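Q: How would the structure tokens look for this protein?
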Amino acid sequence: MERYEDRLESSSYANDEVVGAGPSGRADYDGWVWIPERLFSRMQHLAKAYEFHVLTRLDPYGRNSLNVEQVESLLDEVEFIGRVVEDEALRVQLERLRAVAVAVRGAGPRTELVIEGPPRAKPSEGGVPTLTAAVAQAGL
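A: Here is the predicted structure in token form.
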């Protein structure tokens, strides 16, 4: 098992491109989280294995807008996956996605949760290309 231990370490994903998630209507990406692309993909693979509907249908390379009902379903899916996996790197990202979804849910019915992939998350558009850059931008 030691051969694959790096897959459980968050640092293994520091240079990944990212998938962003945050509230609609924020051109400055304030309130967004950035999830390493490979961990977002892992979420989707698990969602498919459990026959979920929201996570599996998201396009990680495009722009997805989720209404309040879809956000509720996404929260159920993310919380379930978080309970059944023992992958700390994934759990951290699931919690970050859950937190932004909860914030969007509380922002009112006109605010949607937007999930968009690396092609849109470019520095020239206010986004970040890698998790390392996101951490640097946040001053962490």
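Strands lie at 18-23, 33-36, 63-66, 113-116.

Residues 20-138 form one domain.

Upvote if useful.
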